[in-house]
Amino acid sequence: MTTGYQESFARFSAHQAAAAPAHVSELRRKGIERFAALGFPTTRNEDWHFTSVSPIAEHDFTMLVEASGDVRKTHIEQYLFCPNDWYALVFVNGRFAPELSTIAELPAGVTVMPLAKAYVDAPELVSRIGTQVDAETQAFSALNSAFMLDGSVVHIEKDVELTRPIHLVYVTDPHAAKGMTHPRNLIVSDANSRATVIESYVSVGSATYFTNAVTEVSVAQGATLHHYKIQRESARAFHVGTIQVEQARDSHYFSFSFATGAQLSRTNVYTLLAGEGCGATLNGLYMLDDAQHGDHQTLIVHREPNCYSRELYKGVLDAQSHGVFNGKVYVHPEAQKTDGKQTNKVLLLSERAQIDAKPQLEIFADDVKCTHGATVGQLDQVSLFYMKSRGVGNELARRLLTYAFAADVIETLEQPSVRDELEAITLARFNVAELPAGELAGAETVGA
Amino acid sequence: MLKIDNLRANAGDKEILKGLSLNVNAGEVHAVMGPNGSGKSTLAQVLAGNPAYEVTSGSVTYNGQDLLELDAEVRAQQGVFLAFQYPVEIPGVSNAYFLRMAYNEIRKARGEEEVDPMEFADLMDEKLNFVEMDSAMLTRSVNTGFSGGEKKRNEILQMALLEPKLAILDETDSGLDIDALRIVADGVNKLKRPDNATIVVTHYQRLLNYIVPDFVHVLANGRIVKSGGKELALELEAKGYDWVTGAGAAA
Asked: Which of A258, A381, B89, B131 could be disulfide-bonded to B143 (CB atoms 3.0-4.6 Å)?
């Protein structure tokens, strides 16, 4: 299965667009070598037990090197949240699209640039690429490293508090049919900085393509980073995305994964709590329909004492969709006073929908507080009857309860534009009328 | 208005109502009293249309139609209201949104125009006063994190808003302190009109000091075993349920 990729790699390496510093060339070379050795993971691999990637392996995807040039701002406006207020890097078929991006007037101490430009302009930052992600044993990360071409580099310097979010938007258009992109992102938050970075993976049209993204994140001492990933790929697309985070002392990392797209998707969110007193919040919402397959794997490694982790994932599965959630928490012997809580709740709207949920706690310290809870079920019959007893018809009551189930986790988003937008998407999905201001449910329901 | 004739109903495999008959006319307040397990809450749930209970025989006629044929939402749209013993928490749906939706669904079913959020807000101000509730309760999720008293008041708020023809209050007094009890009872009394009726289901006589019934019925082992005027409630309070149910009939 990997021969095609090796041939594709030879063509890619020879392409003039692939010019890059030695560090990157070396990562690419190692990447293809490791990928050739590992091959695509099979369901015998414990981390891929519930997700077969053979539909990806069986396709012969071609590396996309050129931008398409056909995408206009009006095509993607619906995905841009606040196009006039935010800093945005937009990529089309994996290549930076300056005419769609807004990165003028960045404040001092903030770098946001496409990776291909950073090869020349920011070698210091580029040298940090590859230091966190595991391209040795993880086939998709190795593949991403092999085909590393463009992506985003974000650097928030010490003490800088950035109020406007940075949006990294990866758009795929109909020219990408049978193509693949391997976006590579680096986010560096220096000490005591504060920022919000959003990654969006979206599509114009309904092509079959493969996105394989990797994002490396470091959050330095005392820094706070809100990092959201919005996956709304085409219904025929394949998407694998890995986020690998390392956190220093007293840092706070807030992650949210929103996934509604792709026929087959896998999102990995891994964080290493590498300094005392830091903490991570990993939340997410996946809503699948038809025959979609959506997999989330999270890993929180508590390496130091007095750290916290919070996790709330919710899934809404309709038709014959298949959801997978694997939440690992690993507590090292040194990580005393760890405070961890993980919750995974799934709502099955159809008898054919399926969920495989696997919480995994491995605790080697003796003075810790770690809990996990998982629920899988249908809509609560008592709540349904209560609503009906007030005159609300069965169909509307079901839709509203479904919305409420999902909204509960969306409420945890601090960035108001993202929260409102995801709420609006969810309302529309379940055909619930827009909520007028003042009728939105309060945030006290979080975690209920 | 309501005619229950020889009603039998099961919860799961267990028969709870065993041939219950009751007539309620417009303008009347009926108290249904009885020991725990006598079938009081089952009666309330069956009248409201909870599909978790199965009616095995008997009939219920409401304003000339077969009530048992109607889905719960249709009953509500036609004026049946149940104040729940345990109001349900619905995280993620605000009270205001839920109330407006219920109000509009009922209006739509009656061929009336829906009200917009602005009009509705004015209407709610009036109803909130009625049960002495703060408007902050509207932005919170339905019953979520409410105290016992707040939940019961929220039920009466819904009743005040939906103006039912037949209101069934299921143990609305349980868990209420005396101030909350007074507010709830005042609300119910103010809503009383010649064209509506109320069934007050309760274990204790206490609530009936505030909501004075026209008739009192004692329910035991799934049937009404004694009926009388308001003085029956006082007699029950003094003598205990054993007096009418026979010693040891129900705990």
From this structure: B89
Taking CB atoms and an 8 Å cutoff, what residues of chain B touch A405? 92
ipTM over 0.85: yes
Number of inter-chain CB pairs under 8 A, A vs B: 116
The answer to whether residue B251 sits within a structural domain is no
> Which chain A residues are Cβ-neighbours of B51 within 8 angstroms?
381, 385
Which residues numbered 109-148 in B keep a CB inside 8 Å of some CB on A? 109, 117, 121, 138-141, 144-145
Q: Which residues contact A3 (CB under 8 A, 6 or more apart)?
A: none
Instruction: Confirm if A174 and A205 have CB atoms less than 8 A apart.
Output: yes
- Residue B214: inside a domain: yes
Q: A402 in a domain, yes or no?
A: yes
Within-domain flag for A26: yes
Of A389, A404, A406, the CB nearest to B72: A389
Helices (H), chain B: 40-48, 72-77, 95-109, 117-130, 136-139, 148-162, 178-191, 231-239, 242-245
Examine the fold and report which residue of A243, A259, A275 is the final residue of a domain before the chain moves on: A275
Question: pLDDT of A164-178, one tens digit each?
Answer: 999 999 999 988 899
Which residue range is the domain that position A411 belongs to? 379-448
Q: Which two tokens stand for residue A217?
A: 């994140």
Give the per-residue pLDDT at B243: 84
Helix (H) or strand (E) run with residue A212 in it: strand A210-219
Evaluate whether residue B91 is within a structural domain.
Answer: yes
Which pLDDT band, with edges at 50, 70 and 90, does A448 fall under?
very low
Chain center to CA of A95: 19
- Report CB contact under 8 Å: A390, B98: yes
In Å, how far is B235's CA from the nearest CA of chain A?
34
Per-residue pLDDT tens over the stretch B122-177: 999 999 988 888 888 898 899 999 998 899 999 999 999 999 999 999 999 888 88
* Structural domain that includes position B235: 2-245
The number of folded domains in chain B is: 1
Best B141, B142, B166 member to test A by mutation, with max A CBs in 10 Å, is B141
Q: How many other C-beta atoms can be found within 10 angstroms of the C-beta atom of residue B226?
A: 16
- Sequence-separated (6 or more) residues with CB below 8 Å from residue B210: B181, B182, B185, B186, B189
